[in-house]
Amino acid sequence: MVDDGEFVDPVPADAALADRVHGVIAGVADAARAAGRDPEEVTVIAVTKFHPSSLIRQLAALGVVDVGESRHQEAVRKHDELGDLALRWHFVGQLQSNKAAAVREYADVIHSLDRSSLVKALDAPGSPVEVLIQVNLTDDPARGGVREHELAPLVERVLATDGIRLQGLMAVAGLDAEAARDFAAVRELRDRVVLPLAPGAADLSMGMSGDWPAAVAEGATRLRIGTAITGLRPPAA
User: Is residue 237 predicted with pLDDT exceeding 60?
Assistant: First the structure.
C-alpha cells in the first residue's frame, strides 16, 4: 500500500514512475468508491520481478511499502540489499517445497500456498507467517492452485498449524476468461468455503495490471500490480 506519511530516501523517483504510481493509486481509489467500498480496504502491491533494487528504492521514496516478488533467488537478494527500508515483502510466485522455509525467512506474506507439503515446510516456531491459499481457475495444473474440492481440507490443515496464519485466497484470472467472472467465483468460494471455517480469512489477492478494476469491483483486498507501476520489465537475468 502507499503510506501518506513522510518517507525519507536519498534516491529520487523519476517523473514517469511517479506518474504511474499516483495514477494507479488514484484509479484504485476511484474504482473502490464506485463499488461502494472504502479505498483503504485495498492494498496495492508493486510487483517488481526482474527490476533492480534501485527501482524499489524509488518506489519507497514515493511511499510504496508493499513489494511483490515471484522468484526466490531474486527476492532474497533484493530483501538483503534493501534491509534499510521499511518494506513489506510479498512472495507471489509458485512456491517450491524445498525453498519454502527459506522464503519464510524474509516474506511477510506468501500468496501461493496450494498443497499440504507447503504447510509442513512453512511451519516454524515464532511469529506465524501470513499466507493466502491459491485457487486454480483454469484447466492447466501447471499454473498452480487448488481445485474447489481441495480447498476446505487445505484450509483446515492451515488452521491446525501454529506457524501459519491464513488470510484468505489468491487467484489469477484465466488468460482467455472473463476476469470479472473469475474474480466473482473466487469471492464466492471465500464466502461459501473459507469463511465458515476461518471467519477472519477474508482477504482476496486478485487483480493485476490488466484486470485490477474488475478485481476491485468483486471485492479484492490485495492487488498485485507490475507493469502498470514499474513499466516494461527488463530482460530476465
Answer: no
Question: Which three three-digit cell numbers place residue 50?
Answer: 526482474
**Burial of residue 4 (number of CB atoms within 10 Å: 0-12, 13-18, 19+):** exposed
For residue 203, the surrounding DSSP H or E stretch is strand 203-205
* Other CB atoms within 10 Å distance of the CB of residue 37: 17
Cell of 117: 507439503
pLDDT tens digits along 115-149? 999 999 999 998 999 999 999 988 777 788 999 99
Residue the block writes with cell 519507497 = 60
Q: Residue 108: how many CB atoms within 10 A of its CB?
A: 13
* Rounded distance between C-alpha atoms, residue 49 and residue 234, angstroms: 9
Banded model confidence at residue 235, pLDDT cuts 50, 70, 90: low
pTM of the model: 0.91
| Chain centroid, CA 217 distance in Å | 17
- CB-CB contact of 121 with 100 (8 Å): yes
